[in-house]
Design goal:
alpha/beta, Adenylosuccinate Synthetase, Chain A, domain 3, Adenylosuccinate Synthetase, subunit A, domain 2, four-stranded mixed sheet, 13 helices, 20 strands, binds inosinic acid
């Protein structure tokens, strides 16, 4: 396959960063297509932890071009911090390996403030990352947004900023009873950001087409997960972008090419950060144990993640919405600590079995889960290199998931390091 879209099959934090990093060895370009600095991809390279929020993890590889495409919302301040962190660690970041779409929208300080003022005021909180994601996409949709190309043109940027500040300062002072932002302070900051970032600009859709027409391998790197998709997720407890396969197309400017496959990344259990329904959530000691064993704390906000059993109903939904062709199952090693492992195989609501994943969060919060129980393997598996060397009950668990999900599990991840991975079938070669 020439192109591979990577999507989160759950509520994010499935371990996409590690898998993308691994597959990057076989890619000519890696393209981030949605979200912004709300994402946090933790990678372990040479035993060193690296957290990337906006730059595709392909940046750690030589000869790979990384693109931040039009669907992403860019926070210039955090992007500069990320570039400086990478350069400080000896990693090359230049206009030759990092390309930022002219059409991507820019996050401004008023977006971040609005995000936090809104959360403060809401009686039913969403639990956003407060990185300004929702307000930035809101400006994009309402055509008030400032794109990367506008930001690069000082005259255009200053004019748009002035116009937008009139609106935001009115809102801040009169509705939220907060301080107004100062135009000159922002202009000064953004003059500096422009100086630092202007060399990275590119028409990434055009560049991507050059790659595709030459048959080069492109990896599309998603952020968050299917159930956080603005259209298909557990609305309103979602992020503000399309985190699903459709988002990879509009977010980069390509169509549904014949030779695209879709790799869904899925943890061997489920986690969720922030508010919203979570049918298989474990609110007991077992949940605490899984959270501790799996180090389930947000890489962007540090928040403790909610933890629960694997949910086949939700996964089948993710497979359908994304046209997932195969799965990478991550963190299987974390289940080694358990005697018994459960999988939710169906939901019922008001005593009746549901045949599908409901798109109404109030129903989803009331469904009852039916579980199938599997025996654990009670032994560490982190060092296993070959699938058939896994304990028998771990193999049975994986094969049961394949039967239930009706898609192959091509990759099994057994730890954060690159070498703790079993590749049964290479997604780029199938
Ligand atoms: P926002 O994306 O900051 O607007 O947050 C909306 C919801 O998405 C919140 O519940 C966040 O916790 C969640 N969210 C956003 N980004 C991520 C992520 O990368 N992993 C997991 N959850 C996320």
């Amino acid at each position: 396959m020439g192109q591979l879209i990577v999507v989160g099959a759950q509520w994010g934090d499935e371990g996409k960063g590690k898998i993308v990093d691994l597959l990057t060895d076989f890619s000519d370009a890696v393209v981030r297509y949605q979200g912004g600095a709300n994402a946090g991809h933790t990678l372990v390279v040479d035993k060193k932890k690296v957290v990337l929020h906006m730059i595709p993890s392909g940046i750690l590889h030589n000869n790979v071009v990384c693109m931040i495409a039009n669907g992403v919302v860019i926070d210039p301040e955090l992007l500069i911090e990320e570039i400086d962190m990478l350069v400080g660690s000896g990693i090359n970041v230049s206009k030759d390996n990092l390309k930022i779409s002219n059409a991507a929208h820019v996050i401004l300080p008023y977006h971040k403030l609005l995000d936090s003022y809104r959360e403060e005021k809401r009686s039913k909180k969403i639990g956003t990352t407060q990185r300004g994601i929702g307000p930035a996409y809101e400006d994009k949709i309402t055509r008030r947004g400032i794109r990367f190309q506008d930001f690069l043109d000082k005259t255009r940027f200053d004019q748009l900023l002035q116009q937008n500040l009139e609106y935001y300062n009115f809102l801040f002072e009169n509705y939220f009873k907060k301080e107004a932002l100062n135009f000159n302070t922002l202009v000064e900051k953004f003059d500096y950001y422009r100086e630092r970032l202007s060399s990275f600009h590119e028409n990434t859709s055009w560049l991507l087409h050059q790659y595709l027409s030459k048959g080069r391998k492109v990896l599309f790197e998603g952020a968050q997960g299917t159930l956080l998709d603005i259209d298909h997720g557990t609305y309103p407890y979602v992020t503000s972008s399309n985190t699903t396969t459709g988002g990879a197309l509009t977010g980069t400017g390509i169509g549904p090419h014949k030779n695209i496959s879709v790799l869904g990344i899925c943890k061997a259990y489920t986690t969720r950060v922030g508010e919203g329904p979570f049918p298989t959530e474990l609110n007991d000691d077992l949940g605490v144990k899984l959270r501790t064993e799996g180090a389930e704390f947000g890489s962007t906000t540090g928040r403790a993640r909610r933890v629960g059993w694997l949910d086949i109903v939700a996964l089948k939904y993710a497979i359908r919405i994304n046209s997932i062709t195969s799965i990478a199952l991550t963190k299987l090693d974390i289940l080694s600590a358990l005697d018994e492992i459960k999988i939710c195989t169906s939901y019922s609501y008001n005593g009746e079995k549901l045949n599908y994943f409901p798109n109404d969060s109030s129903i989803l919060s009331k469904v009852e889960c039916e579980y199938q129980s599997c025996s654990g393997w009670n032994s560490p598996i982190g060092d296993v290199k070959i699938f058939h060397d896994l304990p028998e009950s771990a193999i049975r668990y994986i094969e049961l998931l394949e039967t239930l999900l009706e898609v192959p599990i091509d990759i099994v991840s057994l730890g954060p390091d690159r070498d703790k991975t079993i590749v049964r079938n290479h997604p780029f070669h199938s």
